[in-house]
Amino acid sequence: MKWKNWFFLTCSLLALGLALGLRKDPYEILGVKRSAVSQEIRKAFKHLAKEWHPDKNSNPEAENKFVEITEAYELLMDPDRRKKFDNFGITEDAPAFTNKPDYSQYRRFDPLDDLFGFQGSSFRFHFQDRDITIFHKLSVTTKAYENHLVPKSYRTPYLILFYSDWCFACLQMEPIWRRIMEELEPIGVGVATVHSENEPLLVKKVGVSSLPLMVLLMDGKAMHYKESLFSVQKVVEFVRSKFPYKLVQPVNDENIEMFLNSWTDNRVRILICENHDSVRLRYILMAYYYRDRVAFGFVQVKSIHAKEVVQRFKVPLDKDTLLLFNENTERPVASLSMPDIPVKTMHDIISNNKYLLLPRLSSQAMFDALCPPDSARPRKRLCVILVSQNTPYHDEPRQVLRQFAQETSYSTERVRFMYIFKERQTDFISALTSGQNSPPEPTLHVVIIWRCDSKRIKYDWLPEDWGNSEQPQWNATRERLSTTIQRLLQSADALSYEAIVQELIDEHAQGMVGRILNKIFVASEYLRDNVTKEQLLPALSVIGTVLFIVVAGYFMAYLVRLEEEKIAKSSSNGMSGGKLNNTQQQLKLHELRPETYNGMVRLLKPGCRTIVLLVDQESRKELLIKFHKTVWPYRKNKTLMFGYLNLEKGLEWYKRLLMLSLPEPRDLNINPKNCIGTVISLNGHRKYFCMYHAKHPESMKGKGSKRMAKMTKRISNYEAGTNGAFMGFETSESEDTENSDLEQGPPMKNGVNSDRYSNVVFKENLLDGLANWLDRLFEGSTYRYYINYWPDFPN
């Protein structure tokens, strides 16, 4: 049995060697010495991360290499894990931190553990320093999410992690989450966690499909982190990509003046000057926090396009610099230069200077901030407001009041100077001018108000209007305002008048177009985050098909309309040439010819028909007048079009049409005289026509159901006699003479009518049965001759 023991021992040693020896040395991965300090490790990691980032390196092994670099960096930056590796060579590394955990790594028992003294808690699981206690400490409820985090997200973005107790991947996420908290929370990113099992409603609302899931809550919207790799760098990139467009504007020598002079939007200006290619996240977060009051610009100090800016404001090249400007664009109100400007310091500087010298009352929030209600205060807080209009002509009075505010020594806690646009805040101005001694025209007048509460204010108007400093009464007006303010501050006298005011209109609110574009942008962001490429392509195909059908239909309708307009113009010319009754212009008869053929036949819309009368030049005038009179009752029917065909021009087309309606092709000899007076109803969409002729079975008296049933057979089996006479088949063209039977009365033979001419119909009687036939046509009881296609109309 000794050989079995030796075999078992050899295999065990081999397994242990594989477990301990095959792990790569994190020092070798990062290329640093074992004595390297944190700064050297961080520098080496940044260099390798840029080189092997999967988005920048097309090498197939780039992703695996990047994961190795990240894991090695995290191990060496953790003092406890680095110490264990240096002492025992144990990395305690779990698999790569991905959203798809490999549960095969977590086994409860292995004989090798017991044999060599490695317990599951120290070799296989190594989770003694990884617990989810930190998740429980940061956990929020659905109520806290709705009432606290969502409102705060309009100024502070929040990273929220969804987890559960029995989630191994969540346990692996714990050190990464700690790093995220350490890096992002101090610069202004809020962090929180949600226990998915305890908050099912919030999980459903956010759309959590797997754990762990990280979301970014910004502007009240939750955006999912979709990357498979959890790392601080990836999370920072994710957060940066979700800020509003141009939150921090790039500024250089060309646009510096435009940026600084844009304070008319009622916001102060801040320039962030850095020696980096892009602005740092801490400054973006500051711009997001104060976006309603401050406009941020970014200057890359080493750029050749920013040399004048750097020289003008004496910006140091080796430090980050913050410059704050109000209406005075020549020199900043506040400035600060440090290698890393603390967040708290920036908050202090901006909070003390976030309003212009003479701000505008442009919203209720601005009104509440500049002139808050203070009925409980023992001393009044006065607000001095200049009523003006949004015009350059009032810039001078506003500048005069701005200078007055700078020269006075009143504390901003006691007196605030501001102006308002009369045309935008009409309700507010109307409430202030309803009292006695109010100026009839408040423009360029100053009113002093004291807010007793959110709705009720007390006020007094300055008697003189507020002009520019060149006016003779300027000194008296200035002295009057100063005296009035001093009197109201020092005495307990109340202001003379009282008014109830409504909330101010938000002049910065988005318009209809802006809201629509914002909705489109939000929808596109949602589709980009939740719709995969496999789902997107079929949807785009369907949308493209529908759009193509709509555009093609519109284009076809446009062509039909053009054709109809062309037909109307040409028919009006044709009708005037025929000397028809000019009083009947409400019903137009269009001539069927090559130019109008498509519009009258081929391009007819579904449900529309064209009724055409066949005439020659000789019978044209007489038959068209009678035809016009017969179809006159149908003039208001929008689905009908009426016209005529001149047989001298269209006989060949008519012959082709009749040949297509026959079951077998035949060589036809048509007598044009026998075709005169024929009426055909053409359905261009369904490709059939109905026919009227005085000798057609449908038009003859005494017809019955058997006669109608035999009609098609008689048409297809025509021979001599009258079977095809109504179509013009009775005689050949050689028999067509000037003395045709249509023009003559019935000849006499031995004093009796000849059989050949017994059924002759005269020209004036050809359309006698048309009215009855039209009734049957619209009832659908006439016979339909179907064809495969419409023949071309010869030129």
From TrEMBL:
Keywords: Autophagy, Membrane, Signal, Transmembrane, Transmembrane helix. GO terms for biological process: autophagy. This is DnaJ homolog subfamily C member 16. Residues 1-21 form the signal peptide. Residues 732-751 are annotated as: Disordered. Pfam families: DnaJ (PF00226), Thioredoxin (PF00085). Residues 25-89 form the J domain. It is a single-pass type IV membrane protein. SMART domains: DnaJ. The keyword Transmembrane applies. Residues 732-741 have a biased composition (Acidic residues). Plays an important role in regulating the size of autophagosomes during the formation process. The chain crosses the membrane at residues 536-560. The keyword Protease does not apply.
